[in-house]
Amino acid sequence: MTDCIFCKIINREIPSYKVYEDDEVYAFLDITQTTKGHTLVIPKQHVTDIFEYDDVLAAKLFSRIPKISRGLEKAFPDMKGLNLINNNKELAYQSVFHSHVHLIPRYSKDDDFSITFKNNGDNYTPETMSQIASTIKEVIDHE
After folding, report:
1. I want to staple 101 with a disulfide (CB 3.0 to 4.6 A). Which of 41, 54, 78, 119 is the partner?
2. Three-state DSSP class for 24?
3. What is the pLDDT of residue 113?
4. Which of 48, 28, 26 is nearest to 38 (CA)?
5. How far apart are CA 66 and CA 116, in angstroms?
6. Can you spell out the DSSP letters for 32-60?
7. Is residue 138 domain-resident?
8. pLDDT value of residue 112
9. Inter-residue contact 39 to 68 (CB < 8 Å)
10. Is residue 32 part of a domain?
């Protein structure tokens, strides 16, 4: 894709702070640095989001994440955790439409980053949960 900022980073048309690269994957510091070491991991193949991955591309990208994560942990001994975030489509807060995974080191509860999940469990009966699971499983089984 010619107008993709991440493709331009991969092609060295735009500078980045590279932390890892191989034939399939490129990882670099996010310029926002939500926390120290905030890293983006991207496939070199342009795909918009997770819905465009095939099994091979998914294996290539996601198999590198533990190695890069361990690198962050060793580089920053004060790191106490790591958020792995992948936003897909605009409603889910994707802002760059070249698939990417955020690795966000966590240092304390006060590091100015939070994720909250509303508990809507009371809105779903066991029967409704079974139906939802069955519907998803049926679609997956026929993929």
Report:
1. 41
2. coil
3. 82
4. 28
5. 24
6. T-SSTT-EEEEESS--SSGGG--HHHHHH
7. no
8. 81
9. yes
10. yes
Residue 85 structural domain = 5-116
The residue whose two tokens read 């290539």 is 60
In a domain, 56, yes or no: yes
The total of structural domains in the chain comes to 1
CA separation for the pair 86, 79 (Å, rounded): 20
Tally of helices (H runs) and strands (E runs) in the chain:
4, 5
- Assign residue 84 the CATH number of its domain: 3.30.428.10
Question: CA 104, 110, 114: angle at the middle one, nearest 5?
Answer: 50
Tokens in use for 66? Answer: 């533990």
Distances, alpha carbon 102 to alpha carbons 53, 67, 83, in Å: 17, 14, 8
In a domain, 127, yes or no: no
pLDDT at 1: 60
When computed from its CA atoms, the radius of gyration of the chain, rounded to whole angstroms, is 18
Across the chain, which has 143 residues, the per-10-residue mean pLDDT values are 89 97 97 96 97 97 98 97 96 96 95 86 93 93 86
